[in-house]
Amino acid sequence: xxxxxxxxxxxxxxxDTKEFTHCYHAYPAMMIPQVARTLIERFSPKGGCYxxxxxxxxxGTSLVEASLKxxxxxxxxxxxxxxxxxxxxxxHFDIAEIEKCISEIQLFPFxxxxxxxxxxxxxxxxxxxxxxxxxxxxxLSYISQTIDSFDNSVQLFFKIALSEVVREVSFTRxxxxxxxxxxxxxxxxxxPDVFGLFESKVYRxxxxxKHYNRxxxxxxxxxxxxxxxxxxxxxxxxxxxxxxIVTSPPxxxxxxxxxxxxxxxxxxxxxDFPNAKNLDNxxxxxxxxxxxxxxTESIKEELQAIENTxxxxxxxxxxxxxxxxxxxxxxxxxxxxxxxxxxxxxNRTVKGIQIPLDYFTAExxxxxxxxxxxTIVREIPNKRMPSKNSPTNVTxxxxxxxxxxxxxxxxxx
Length: 413
Ligand SMILES: C[S@@+](CC[C@H](N)C(=O)[O-])C[C@H]1O[C@@H](n2cnc3c(N)ncnc32)[C@H](O)[C@@H]1O
Known about the structure:
Mean pLDDT: 93
Number of domains: 2
Shape: globular
Distance between the termini: 20 Å
Bound molecules: S-adenosylmethionine
CATH superfamily of the largest domain: Vaccinia Virus protein VP39
Structural class: alpha/beta
Strand order of the largest sheet: 1-9-12-6-5-2-3-4
């Protein structure tokens, strides 16, 4: 249908994925920087790439890579944590100012006492005593108040380090995106070094920043919060203004695939960002609409088969695809003639049936005046995402859902 090319080059098995500011903060289903980098290098449109767009920016991998190549970019995400990470990763903070602040951080273990904590109101964090011990909350609050006393221009750099700590020192089970509390016996032994952890992240990120600041520094990256499913504001992105899209969209709703909202809730609540609690409902496919609102030949049989087997799963899949299709309809006019879109997608399996989202993506763009250039199949060695799920209600039955991703490349005619 839309020819796939398997190319092992794109697996980047031994690549350092944490270069530059890519080391700052974990995020679910991050794109490998080398994928974004190589797409820009090999598939930039004729006439050049001066303005790049990522409509589902996540932690801003594409924007960082664009900026390293001196390309201006714009990205959007409705998850506030994603925007905070992307903003931090694309900012050229002043190293000297940061080093001044670090000398204060080094003194935390000596100067800290609980009486010095000015804010002890944690009511913005739901069920906070279930997720944190009180001494830990007080230390986190002390870090926050110290960051607030730093020069405005560098506060974000430190907040991004704190944002990771906030999650790691909670009672959530490590290594999972979803919010599961540790077992009681683990909690009893759990005494993380809050200040040490924070300091080590600051140092790690500082190395990344130094590397980033030495590279090309003139490009701008604009971080936005519009929802591409509904509208793309014309004043921010006029029609035909974009040379290239490099993005990785979700591959299903957050409830049954990657739990962006749950993963982000620690930071979103700590920083009192909006929609922290109901984010997963706002992301693509978050609201159930059982009626299919798009036309498709490319995945018709798969959808039919799922509908015949399980109406609930069918409505989950269709709700996501309705939003995804609307989003592509809003994105398409923003690309200039000859411009290139690169969508890195995953093909999930529902009820044992794999949904070729790469075909659907290519088909939807083609109907909007794009031409399919190629689809590259790559292995995903590093991505932390469920590779198995329960395809049936049979306990313990697992089916492989994804071990490849598909890079769909099209150009606007
Ligand atoms: C696969 S992740 C992107 C990861 C990113 N490429 C990176 O390297 O971190 C998909 C992103 O889509 C975002 N998203 C979901 N629905 C969205 C919508 N309607 N508008 C904008 N972003 C959305 C999620 O919040 C998530 O951050």
